[in-house]
Amino acid sequence: MFGLSKSKGNYAYTVTRAKAKKSLLIKEDDYNKMLQLSVSEVARFVSEEGYSKEITDLSDRMVGVDLVERATYAYMANNFKALLKGSQGELHTMLAAYLQKWDNWNLKVILRGKSYGVSADDIRDDLVPAGNLSYEDLDKLIALDTTEEILAAYSKAESVDIPSELIADYKATGTLGRIEDYVDKFHYIRMVKIIPTNSIPARMFSDYIRKEIDVRNLETILKLKMENIDEEKVMEYIIPGGKQIDAKLAKQLIDAKTVEETFPDLAQLDFYDYIKELVDSGKMNISDLVLVTKKYEANEAKKFSQQYPLSILPIIDYMICMEIEARNIRMIARGIESGLDKEVIKGLLVI
User: Fold this and answer.
1) Whether 100 contacts 158, CB under 8 Å
2) Which CATH superfamily is domain 198-310 in?
């Protein structure tokens, strides 16, 4: 699945499909309209905007926010699967590696669900089969009895070697955190290794992934620092391969006594302009940080996709925009149900 192919791939065909899908995405004005609706009206609205199959398929057993959330995930998964299935060669290899993050998502859903005694049907409802594993593959994982069996089957399917000491740690503590962290870290390490460096677009894609690693590492460092986690422990969670936050800078940030003491070192990061307002306010929190870094990632993807139209870049740009659309729709539905002020909800959207 993740071996490099001698074939470059069908870029023109796959890019054309991705651009056609991107043209159907919800516009900013549509979000403003949605903010005036009830949750059931939001469901009807997105159904008319392309989500009709997913809304129809799920509406016999779900309503309200649950229906909207599951439909957005299903729509996104169906579109990503279609692009992955239609791609070939080197392009397919890179897309498969990129979308493997959703296989990790589903592994976590299954492991957590089984550990808490959640029913198989409820676990299925939370899956997002947007990666390499099909509904049938995921069903086989759900049918397995033990965590060890699930991890063994997943490792074989995804060519991931989960260390035995992590499994032993889970047996001893009943905590899945280290295993979940490992598969996420492995995903990024493999991504950096798999992306070829034989063309400018591929190198730009590699840089984008490495910048994403920087963002994830900063979020991790600040989150764990706010929770007063021991410095040595924090270092275990750092993903190698970042473009700017290397081991040295990561250690500097981790060694800072407070979140505020990290701020001078943040000025050197490419995405500092996006977080500057949070830094200047002196009130850094993770939810706001995640919001502004998502905007940074979306803008970076848009910028590089326009430079090399016949490459993987416009496809990744579409996928990032699709993820953001699904997030925005869910945020609107949840906000409306919770009775949040419309301006507050709008401030939580990535537009």
Assistant:
1) yes
2) V-type ATP synthase subunit C domain (1.20.1690.10)
Percent of the chain with pLDDT over 70: 98
The encoded tokens of residue 66 equal 């649950």
| Cβ-proximal residues to 84 (8 Å cutoff; 6+ apart), any chain | 92, 95, 96, 99, 132
Helix (H/G/I), strand (E/B), else coil: 258: coil
Quick one: average pLDDT of 78-92? 97
Burial of 16 (0-12, 13-18, 19+ CB in 10 A): middle
Mean pLDDT of 151-176: 93
Task: Write the pLDDT tens digit of every residue in 253-301.
Answer: 999 988 899 999 999 999 999 999 999 987 888 999 999 999 999 999 8
Angle between helices 147-158 and 89-115 (to 10 degrees): 180
pLDDT of residue 1: 57
Instruction: Compute the distance between CA of residue 312 and CA of residue 84 in angstroms, rounded to an integer.
Output: 12
Q: How far apart are CA 92 and CA 97, in angstroms?
A: 9
What are the backbone dihedrals phi and psi of residue 139, each rounded to the nearest 5 degrees, phi first? -60, -40
Burial track 160-197 (b if 16+ CB lie within 10 A, e otherwise)? bebeeebbebbeeeeebebbbebbbbbbbebbbebbee
How does pLDDT run across 335-346, given as a tens digit for each residue? 999 999 999 999
Domain extents for the chain? 10-87, 88-194, 198-310
Instruction: Measure Cα distances from 164 to 52, 178, 189, 269 in Å.
Output: 45, 12, 19, 36
